[in-house]
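testing teh design pipeline on a random one, pls ignore if ur not involved
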C-alpha cells in the first residue's frame, strides 16, 4: 500500500519523457526530410504553403480546430483532383478557398479568425503561386522563402492558441522552416 500520500491514479505530464510532448516537431522534421528527399522544386514548395493555408482556413471556416489536421488530407486531395480534372492545382485551391469562405459565412463562423485566415491564404498562397511564373532559380528561392516565412503565421497562431491545435502549428513551424530553408539552400547553391 502506498503511504506516501501521493495520488497514483493521475498521470502527471512530468512522468512522461519530454520527447513525447514534442511529437508534432518530430512529425514536422520527418515531413521536411521526406519533402526535401523526394525532390526540391518550386511547385512542391508552393503546394506546401497553399495546403497549409487551406488547413487553417478550413478550421476557421468551420470553427473546429481539428479540421486543420484533417485539412492536410483534404488539401492534398484538392490538389490532386484539380490536376486530374485538367485544372492547374492553384485554381482548384482558389476555388476551394472561396467555398470555405462562403461556408464559414453561412455557418456563422467567428468573423475575425475567418477573415484573418482568408487574408493569410491570399498573401502566402498568392506569393506561392507567383513563384511558379518566375525564372526557375528565382522562383525556387522565393518558394522556399515564402514557405519559411509561413512559420511566422504558425508562431502567431501557436501563441494565441486559437483556430487550429497547437500541435498543428508546432508541426507546421518545423516543416516550414526546415523545408523552406532547405529549398532556399538548394536554390542558392544550385
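output:
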Amino acid at each position: 500500500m502506498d503511504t506516501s500520500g501521493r495520488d497514483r491514479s493521475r498521470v502527471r505530464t512530468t512522468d512522461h519523457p519530454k520527447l513525447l510532448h514534442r511529437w508534432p516537431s518530430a512529425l514536422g522534421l520527418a515531413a521536411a526530410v521526406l519533402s526535401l528527399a523526394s525532390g526540391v522544386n518550386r511547385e512542391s514548395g508552393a503546394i506546401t504553403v497553399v495546403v497549409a493555408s487551406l488547413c487553417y482556413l478550413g478550421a476557421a471556416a468551420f470553427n473546429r480546430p481539428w479540421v486543420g489536421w484533417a485539412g492536410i488530407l483534404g488539401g492534398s486531395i484538392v490538389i490532386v483532383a484539380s490536376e486530374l480534372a485538367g485544372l492547374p492545382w492553384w485554381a482548384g485551391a482558389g476555388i476551394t478557398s472561396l467555398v470555405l469562405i462562403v461556408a464559414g459565412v453561412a455557418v456563422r463562423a467567428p468573423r475575425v479568425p475567418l477573415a484573418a485566415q482568408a487574408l493569410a491564404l491570399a498573401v502566402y498562397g498568392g506569393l506561392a503561386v507567383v513563384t511558379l511564373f518566375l525564372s526557375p532559380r528565382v522562383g525556387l528561392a522565393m518558394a522556399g522563402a515564402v514557405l519559411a516565412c509561413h512559420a511566422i503565421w504558425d508562431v502567431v497562431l501557436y501563441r494565441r492558441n486559437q483556430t487550429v491545435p497547437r500541435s498543428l502549428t508546432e508541426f507546421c513551424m518545423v516543416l516550414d522552416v526546415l523545408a523552406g530553408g532547405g529549398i532556399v539552400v538548394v536554390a542558392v547553391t544550385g
